[in-house]
Amino acid sequence: MRTYFKRLGLALGGIIGAIAIGIALEKDLGIPFDTSYRVACAIACLAFVFKLQRDYPTEKWPKAGLLGAGIINISLFFTPLVSRPASRGELMIFALPDAIVVLAALIAFYKVETVHQRAVRQQMVLGLIIALGFSAVMFTLILIGPQPHRLR
Predict the structure, then answer these.
(1) What is the per-residue pLDDT across 81-128, written as a single tens digit (0 to 9) for each?
(2) Is the pTM of this model over 0.70?
């Protein structure tokens, strides 16, 4: 229980530190807070994928997932998603594609030798399809944005 509170304290301290650094960067260097907030969200997602790599050191899929997630996170900064103001759900913009990339890497490196393993891989593929659909709907709604009400 003590370790849980220590990790929670470190996480909250990291969040407060990232916000303080973002405010300082905006005040002193003129870097928008939205940009530093998005960078912090991308780093948090990559840290989680890196932890997977440390948890499974002999597997190949975490390394491929980390590489793919890094490429996706960097490329998201060149999309129209970052031209809007940052929101509280900004972490999902980076977390959902990272989860899809890591799941795709796991599926690609998953060895199938028995019927049970084939069934597990089929369930992972179904989860990947559902995640892709959810991601497509979410990003479409973000890109469309709020529409003004039309008077008839």
Answers:
(1) 877 877 777 888 889 999 999 999 999 999 999 999 999 999 999 999
(2) yes
Residue 113, number of CB atoms within 10 A of its CB: 7
**Helices 33-55, 61-76: crossing angle, 10 deg rounding:** 170
Please, are residues 152 and 113 in contact by the beta-carbon 8 Å criterion? no
The CB density around residue 143, as the number of other CB atoms within 10 Å, is 12
- For 42-78, letters b (16+ CB in 10 Å) and e give bebbbeebbebbeeeeebebbbbbbebbbebbeebee
The position carrying tokens 């996480």 is 11
Over its C-alpha atoms, the chain yields an Rg (Å, rounded) of: 19
Q: Output 35-40 pairs: Cβ under 8 A, ≥24 positions apart.
A: 35/82, 37/86, 37/90, 38/77, 38/82, 38/86, 38/90, 38/93, 38/94
Confidence at residue 152, expressed as pLDDT on a 0 to 100 scale: 61
Q: Looking at residue 30, what DSSP letter applies?
A: -
